Amino acid sequence: MFPIMITIFVALLVPSAAPLIASLMLGNLIKESGVAERLSKTMSNELMNIVTIFLGFTVGATATATTFLSLETIEIMVMGVVAFGFGTAGGVLLAKFMNLFLREKINPLIGSAGVSAVPMAARVSQVVGQKENPGNFLLMHAMGPNVAGVIGSAIAAGVLMALFS
After folding, report:
1. For a Cys staple, 116 with which of 52, 58, 122, 150, CB 3.0–4.6 Å?
2. Which region holds residue 34: left if phi is over 0, alpha if psi is between -120 and 50, else beta?
3. Do 121 and 91 meet the contact criterion of CB atoms below 8 Å apart?
4. What is the per-residue pLDDT across 14-24, written as a single tens digit (0 to 9) for each?
């Protein structure tokens, strides 16, 4: 029910973000249903790799040097790096702030995975946590804020598209 309800909610709230969220939730629905195991494995491995390659080719084929190496593009990339840094630092600081009030403390590295760089941010949290303490297993805990960051980014993009289109 979760993927279906999220798709309906986002479609009503931000219609322009509906296709992206619906695609994400379709994958979730197929994986969690348990009745399409081969399709789920194909979608999460071979199909994802093929789509990534074609997406890279199409973006690369349409990006000319004059378009890509403009000052505006470089400014956007710098703003993205700064936003990524603020998101990571904000997640860590918020987790530390929450620990002031929680009885059962949470690892602040989980907060650093709140940026929407799936699954790399969660993996980095896992690796850094295990370097500090080999008994740390943060990956599954870090995937929660990681996926929430993706959904939040898609909704924010939909709101911006609706406002500025």
Report:
1. 150
2. left
3. no
4. 888 888 889 88
